[in-house]
């Protein structure tokens, strides 16, 4: 009886082992998504976001004024009147309010096709390339399936789609060097990462915030010397551009009329009412930013 029981137990163990091996073999035969899946997902986002952004523009729901301003500035660059615009309230040069130097290499293209929809397409292309950079890096680091999930979470995040569909902003084009710099920083190439993000800051002054952000990343990774340099450098760049360079292009006629510079006005509001900064961080805008960053990728963007 004992021998029979032991025989049955051994047979049960062998059958269980065979079932486990068979199931493992079936799982192993399921092919992981190829690298083409990453580019197919990126291409799908590009086509859909371009179509939606253009339809919104044709329906007159494209943001407020930025697409119109950047369209006129791009036209002026393509026609030999650099950075001129008639759409600002207190300036005739766009450089007085934004140092959007990223528009310079785009001027010849806009001269061939002077249509504001071109700017929307270029913005979607920049966002798509940035997401693909992150997706390819994630695929190499954590596997093909998980990398595809990260890419999808990036493309479908509220902040990403809001940028893609709301309007056009020149700073959105800097996401390509910023994302590539971030990937290089995480891959262990801090100097190349720093140069790319600094280049982004020269393309548009608001990208200097990414320089400071990269400095915080290096500080968190215990690369203190480089982190401090980038953090302080980002602060210096944005202060220099906002308080020295851009005011130099301000229309002197409006200054004589008593109107302050646009860039200084943002800082004066914070100086006069510090509670505004606290409200921006802890109020509705801060909550929306936290939801946009934390929920879509399970907090990955906060790391």
Describe the structure.
- The protein has 303 residues and is mainly α.
- Helices cover 72% and strands 0% of the residues.
- It contains 15 helices and no strands.
- It has helices at residues 2-29, 35-58, 66-78, 107-112, 116-142, 144-155, 158-166, 175-187, 190-203, 208-220, 224-248, 252-256, 262-272, 275-282, 284-294.
- Helix 2 (35-58) packs parallel to helix 6 (144-155) and helix 8 (175-187) runs antiparallel to helix 9 (190-203).
- The chain is globular and about 60 Å long.
- It starts with a helix and ends in a 9-residue tail after the last helix.
- The relative contact order is 0.09.
- The model is unreliable at 3-7 (pLDDT under 50).
Strand content: under 5%
Task: Give the biggest sheet.
Answer: none
Spatial shape: globular
Average pLDDT number = 82
């Amino acid at each position: 009886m004992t021998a029979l029981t032991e025989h049955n137990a051994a047979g049960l163990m062998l059958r269980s082992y065979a079932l486990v091996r068979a199931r493992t073999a079936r799982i192993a035969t399921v092919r992981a998504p190829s690298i083409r899946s990453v580019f197919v997902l990126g291409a799908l986002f590009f086509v859909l976001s371009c179509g939606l952004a253009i339809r919104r523009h044709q329906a007159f729901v494209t943001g407020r004024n930025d697409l119109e301003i950047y369209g006129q500035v791009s036209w002026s660059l393509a026609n030999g009147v650099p950075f001129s615009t008639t759409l600002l309230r207190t300036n005739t040069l766009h450089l007085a309010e934004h140092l959007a130097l990223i528009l310079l290499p785009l001027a010849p293209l806009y001269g061939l096709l002077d249509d504001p929809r071109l700017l929307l397409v270029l913005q979607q292309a920049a966002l798509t390339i940035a997401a693909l950079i992150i997706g390819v890096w994630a695929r190499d680091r954590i596997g093909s399936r998980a990398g595809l999930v990260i890419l999808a979470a990036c493309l479908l995040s509220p902040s990403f789609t809001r940028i893609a569909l709301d309007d056009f902003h020149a700073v959105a084009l800097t996401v390509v060097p910023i994302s590539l710099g971030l990937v290089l920083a995480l891959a262990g190439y801090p100097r190349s990462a720093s140069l790319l993000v600094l280049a982004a800051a020269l393309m548009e002054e608001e990208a200097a915030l990414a320089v400071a952000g990269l400095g915080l990343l290096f500080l968190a990774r215990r690369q203190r010397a480089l982190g401090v340099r980038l953090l302080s450098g980002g602060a210096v760049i944005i202060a220099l551009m906002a308080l020295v360079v851009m005011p130099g292009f301000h229309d002197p006629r409006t200054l004589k009329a008593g109107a302050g510079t646009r860039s200084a006005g943002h800082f004066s509001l914070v100086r006069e009412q510090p509670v505004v900064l606290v409200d921006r961080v802890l109020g509705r805008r801060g909550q929306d930013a936290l939801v946009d960053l934390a929920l879509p990728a399970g907090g990955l963007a906060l790391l």
